[in-house]
Design goal:
Blueprint: H1 5-135, H2 142-155
Helix pairs in contact: 1-2
Amino acid sequence: MEINATLIGQLITFAVLVWFTMKYVWPPITKALHDREKTIAAGLEAALRSQRELEQAERKALAIIRESKEQAVHIVDQAHKRAMQLVDDAKDTARQESKRILENANEEIAREVSQTKEVLRKQLASLAVAGAEKIIQRNLDIATQTALLDEFVAEI
């Protein structure tokens, strides 16, 4: 192999090209590659952070849903208890009202029975007096008749 001027010229040209490439071309390319690498790393980090935040938000959402369901069950239970209490209160009120009406009716019946007895007693006394008067009309005087009548009323 012979080393001649062409080979030396090619070596010099190649060395200049390598130096020029390393001095002016290579730094912007490596800088762009490093910037792109940083951008991709930041994007991956943001994606991971977003994924963690999404998982945390899902856990919070599930906790809120669970709490809401528990509150709903509690509210429904309270509504059932209140409804049962209202029904019981209404039953108690109805019982008390019916008892009061029954007592009033019994008192009214007792008054009417008493009044009816008194009326019947008076009518019976009148009838007895009238009958006795017819029987003994001429045999007794007025004082004796009044005494007999008072005695008869006292017995009735």
